[in-house]
Design goal:
This protein is an alpha+beta fold and about 425 residues long. Helix content is about 35%, strand content about 25%.
Length: about 425
């Protein structure tokens, strides 16, 4: 039997996703010698699938805009965002030779539209800095040994002054995100907030969305009320086999996931399918179209606004037993149609499973992490970065910005205490 290999280093990072890689890069640039342990055979496997493989790595806006977007997590993330902002991230990639482009909705992508180029930049920079990567190695345990740590894999023991846990959450487990970081954090005394699905399709009590699965609406507004708090989100919507998806549903899921599943007390929502029209303008437009096409099926006339299959479904909800012609549209039916178009009701009973979610809500409690350093308040020398922390944001690059900002701060501070 051979002895276990012993590696001595300044900082050991668990996970080679964007948070872990950037923590390693920052630690190395701060004078430390980091080792990165990654259970996959390559870095940033999950990053390769983000943004439809285009990698929406951040968003436009000031630090204050980001803090507002993060809602209840904004206060915790403020120091990390001030240390390394969205502008800093764009400048970083520009200096490394990868320009960015901003789309109409404020999402920021590499100009090449390839996530692989983002990964290439990060891994190439890490190699130039001489960072030691241990790929295809799974951490089995992290133990505190006096002022230092022992990080144990099957074949090696890493002795280190600081540890950064950046092992991700529990979403998209096929990429290696299986909640390993929670286990390590808990073994070192940390509380774990129950992981839940965030930025995820939603399941409705109503079954009719499944009959038009795949039908999309480019821009809707969804409203709901949670206690005394009013929630309003906007964006694209897609009807699915079980309910609704798309950016609007994903962003809504951030607010309601903590209330689900609840099949007896669903979250009631209303969807404005045509937010660009007010009620009076929409009704007048319908009157005009019906006058122009009196012998046409009403659903076909209303397809001027939205996909015909959706309009047919809404018409059948009002008159399930007959086809309505535009010329015979009554005032009462017209007002019912307008009501559905502006306030379509649905009842959300659950999210899709966490494995289908884009990000994880939950993880290491922020109350046990120093927001100015990302260091544990319970275990000196232990740091956290990325999705393993109970902090998430809306669609549009906000979650990758969390990864880069917390990774930067953790890497910088871990390097300081290790020297």
């Amino acid at each position: 039997m051979t002895d276990k290999r012993i590696i001595k280093t300044d900082v050991c990072i668990i996970g080679a996703g964007p948070a872990g890689l950037f923590a390693a890069i920052t630690a190395a640039e701060s004078g430390a010698k980091p080792v990165v342990v990654e259970k996959n055979t390559t870095a940033c496997r999950k990053l390769m699938y983000t943004g439809g493989k285009r990698c929406n790595f951040t968003h436009t806006g000031s630090v204050d805009d980001f803090i507002k977007a993060y809602d209840t997590f904004g206060r915790f993330l403020r120091p990390a965002l001030h240390e390394f902002s969205a502008d800093d991230l764009r400048n970083y990639f520009a200096k490394q030779g990868l320009a960015a482009k901003v789309e109409k909705d404020g999402c920021v992508f590499p100009v090449t539209d390839r996530a692989s180029d983002v990964v290439r930049i990060l891994t190439s920079h890490a190699r130039r800095l001489g960072i030691n990567f241990l790929y295809d190695k799974e951490v089995q345990a992290i133990e505190k040994d006096g002022d230092n740590f022992e990080v144990n894999t099957g074949a090696a023991r890493i002795d280190t002054a600081a540890v950064i846990i950046a092992a991700g959450g529990m979403t998209w487990p096929f990429t290696g995100s299986t909640g390993d970081g929670y286990k390590f954090a808990a073994s070192l005394g940390h509380s774990i907030i129950e992981p839940k699905a965030s930025l995820v399709p939603l399941v409705t009590a109503e079954k009719w969305p499944g009959t038009i699965s795949g039908v999309s609406v480019p821009n809707v507004v969804i409203r709901t009320k949670l206690g005394k708090r009013k929630i309003c989100v906007c964006g694209a919507l897609i009807f699915t086999g079980e309910g609704i998806g798309g950016f609007a549903a994903f962003d809504l899921s951030r607010f309601i996931t903590d209330f689900l599943p609840d099949y007896e007390n669903p979250v009631k929502i209303v969807i404005d399918l045509l937010p660009e029209f007010d009620v009076n303008d929409l009704e007048n437009q319908i009157i005009s179209l019906c006058s122009e096409h009196p012998k046409k099926e009403l659903a076909g006339v209303l397809a001027e606004f939205l996909p015909r299959s959706l309009m047919l479904n809404l018409c059948q909800q009002i008159n399930p037993s007959q086809t309505v012609l535009a010329g015979s549209l009554t005032k009462e039916t017209r007002k019912q149609i307008v009501k559905l178009l502006k306030e379509l009701p649905l009842s959300i009973v659950a999210t899709r499973p966490i494995a289908d979610a884009t990000v994880t809500r939950g993880g290491v409690s922020t109350s046990e992490i120093d927001p100015k350093t990302m260091e544990s308040k319970l275990c000196k020398g232990l740091f956290f970065a990325g999705e393993v922390i109970n902090a998430d944001g809306p669609c549009g690059g906000f979650n990758l910005q969390i990864a880069f900002s917390t990774g930067y701060l953790a890497g910088k501070k871990a390097a300081q205490i290790s020297q």
